[in-house]
Amino acid sequence: MIFLYYNFFLISLGIVCLSLKKKVPKWITFVNLSFVLGIILFNYRFDITFTGEFGVHLLLDQTSRYFLLLSALVFTAVFMKGMSSTLSGLSSILLGILNLAFVSYDLFNIYVVVEAVSLVTFLMIVEGKRKIQYWSAFKYLVIGTVGMNLFLIGVAILYSENGTLSISDISRVSPLASSLILVGLLLRSGVFLFSMWLPQVHAESETVVSALLSGVVVKSTVYGLLRVQNIVNWQVVKDLALFSAIFGAVLVFLSKDYKRMLAYSTLSQVGIILVSPITAPVYALAHGISKAWLFLLKDDLPGRDVTKWKKISFQVWFFLAIATLSIMGLPGFAGFVKILVLDQLQSWEKFVLELAFIGTAASFWRLLLKTPDFSKQKFLGFYNLVLLVSSVLVGISYAEWNESFETILSMGIGFLIHLGFNRYKIDKYPLEDFEAMMGSYFLGVVIVCLLSLQL
């Protein structure tokens, strides 16, 4: 119950600060980080069902701990970066809701928290009050509503079949219900073809909002997918995840807009997360740290078009290089946990994912090769230190040093691809048009239904 009271306090604090137009104190995020570290160190867990077997089911286990830690680290970094009073209040509300989302263990509660997260993030996306932010937020809300309505229909079918919403008590699953639940969650989880709303939303939001969206928010539905892995056809998820990993990496390579690079990278990295439910929590943690870091550095860079960067302040270049190496998977940093993912795959799946890692390396080499300017001195926020320490700790904790050569080799191949093909770039992204977005989503729905029904 302490966990519930604590998160209701965070939500209430955000509402009060919004009403008073005051910023939520930064130390709140340190309290939250300490609270989550306490949960991990003391192996705190609970399994609670409210109001009988049909009520809200909350479960705090090892999977929840990874996502709670990710949320605590990213929110701490974002608050240290600084933001307006409105975003500060909304962030506190979002933090409380996400904490509750990461312990949800029944289908209706997952639906409620995902919708609550969407509503708060909608308000955060339009905070900059730019026309493109309103338009991208509108698309996010409309398409998201379509997906979650399909999810809700699937939940209703399951409830009629089983008489319960608790995931642990569901024994009968019809292919139709399974398909509807899957396509609903895929839309919000950042999988290529299903989530083409994501690149524009993540690229056009304010910097701190982009960091929260790519670092944590998109993981709320990834968490939901992991919880329903025994209800949905996971082989379908794995196939779509591999597809997303590859095509996302290709679009990262072809993008010259820094924020859009990161956004498409999220599509690719979510694919990598979802190829194995066993390693998904730890890779989600690794990706969230690296991606939030890269987004937060955006305000210190010369602009969004990376081809026009001449020189970068040395301090900015240093942290950009470390964050880049982290997402590329250099041994000793968070992304190195990719070795754990590869160990879970069959040979052909491993080959496909290796291509995605090579594509990621080829894309991010362009950032590493920028020239540092030692004459320009610039103080960077302490959030860099928080994320640096987090990346190193995660990288060392899960390191398999005997497989370092494999990672170095893929980075080397990526370097050669960068040298050979870096002149190829695109300026337009037709799949982000509203009509194309809807079309690609419904095409994905049909594919998933056919695969799940095995027609």
Walkthrough of the structure:
The structure is a single chain. The protein is 69% helix and 3% strand. The protein is mainly alpha-helical and 455 residues long. The strands form two sheets. The protein has a two-stranded antiparallel sheet with strand order 1-2.
Q: Which shape, going by the Cα principal axes?
A: globular
Total helices: the number is 18
- Main β-sheet: number of strands, strand sense, barrel status? 2 strands, antiparallel
The number of distinct β-strands equals 4
- Helical amount: 55-70%
- The stretches of 5 or more residues where confidence is low (pLDDT under 50) are none
N-to-C SSE string, H for helix and E for strand: HHEEHHHHHHHHHHEHHHEHHH
Mean pLDDT: 90
Strand order of the largest sheet: 1-2
Q: Evaluate the radius of gyration.
A: 21 Å
> What's the end-to-end separation, in Å?
46 Å
Into which percentage range does the β-strand content fall?
Answer: under 5%
The structural class is mainly alpha
